[in-house]
Amino acid sequence: MPELPEVETVRTGLLAHVVGHKITSATQLHERAQNPRSIAPIEDLAGSTVLDIKRRGKFLWFELDRSDVLVAHLGMSGQFLIDPRETRHTRAIFTLKKGRKETALHFNDQRTFGWVSLERKTDGIPTSVAKIAPDIFEPSFDQAAVIANVGRRKVKIKTAILNQNIVSGIGNIYADEALWLARVHPESVTHEMSAAAIGRTLDCAKEVMSQAIKVGGTSFDDLYINVNGESGYFAISLNAYGRENEPCSRCGTLIKRISFANRSSHFCPRCQKKRG
């Protein structure tokens, strides 16, 4: 958390507030705010102009009027906020100016697992982002190749769609929701599944995340808010995640929670039987 829909919401918010603005200063306030692999201190951003904000999976990057880019990963609680009132969790500040208007973009991170860094690009993709697979919304996403890749593996389907080297951006919340919508058990073994079932799971992941993006993502607390400090409202639409012992909205069977790779997995035992 945040996952792809939350990061996309942040990206669109940043588009409206920072594109075309000049970074007059950048200040690191916490030792963990900057990724140690950054090619230069973020203070070197001073004088750059923001041209665009791009995203792959859970990564954001600021396109600048220079060859390198500012990359950000929000971790568990990272936030970009415009002129926030509360600043106790601010880890870095970017002062922006467009015309006579000056604003402060704060990178807040209560749990300090997020980071920013200056990076070079290869074929338009920053160094740290190039290691992950395209996400399901990218033109370069090859669904047929992903289906074949998943089908060759002997892993649980939820493990496969959480693997950022197979398809990026899907986290625990939207994996549970996609599998519920696709009527696929999270522990179904991928090499025993049909290509149609794997494809249906990917289609449902895209559908669920598209709906989440429309309402600003999922907020359970103030660890995820958009650049204006507003929460997302997809939590009210969740059908599986976090609904243990509540009736399935499709068949009425109680949603079950099981342990899954040091986290929880929620599913309907009636709608989501193990089958290909």
Structural class: alpha+beta
Roughly how many Å apart are the termini? 29 Å
* Number of beta-strand segments: 12
Q: How does CATH name the architecture of the largest domain?
A: Orthogonal Bundle
User: Percent of residues in helical segments?
Assistant: 10-25%
Return Rg in Å. Answer: 20 Å
Q: Approximately what portion of the residues adopt beta-strand conformation?
A: 15-25%
Largest sheet: 4 strands, antiparallel
Can you tell me the overall shape? elongated
* Biggest β-sheet: strands ordered side by side in the sheet: 1-6-7-5
CATH class of the largest domain: Mainly Alpha
Q: What is the typical, i.e. mean, pLDDT?
A: 93
Could you spell the SSE succession in H and E letters? Answer: HEEEEEEEEEEHHHHEE
> What name does CATH use for the topology of the largest domain?
Helicase, Ruva Protein, domain 3
Number of domains: 2
Stretches where pLDDT is under 50 for at least 5 consecutive residues are none
Number of helices: 5
Overview of this structure, please?
It is a single chain. By secondary structure, this protein is of the alpha+beta class. It folds into two domains: 4-126, MutM-like, N-terminal (N-terminal domain of MutM-like DNA repair proteins, Alpha-Beta Barrel); 143-267, Helicase, Ruva Protein, domain 3. It is 22% helix and 24% strand. It contains five helices and twelve strands. The protein has helices at residues 4-18, 143-152, 157-162, 172-182, 195-214; strands spanning 22-28, 50-56, 59-64, 69-73, 78-82, 90-98, 101-109, 115-119, 121-122, 125-126, 256-260, 263-267. It has a four-stranded antiparallel sheet with strand order 1-6-7-5, covered by helices on one side. A four-stranded antiparallel sheet has the order 2-3-4-8, with helices on one face. Helix 1 crosses helix 5 (195-214) and helix 2 (143-152) crosses helix 5. The longest helix has 20 residues, at 195-214. The chain starts with a helix and ends in a 9-residue tail after the last strand. The mean pLDDT is 93.
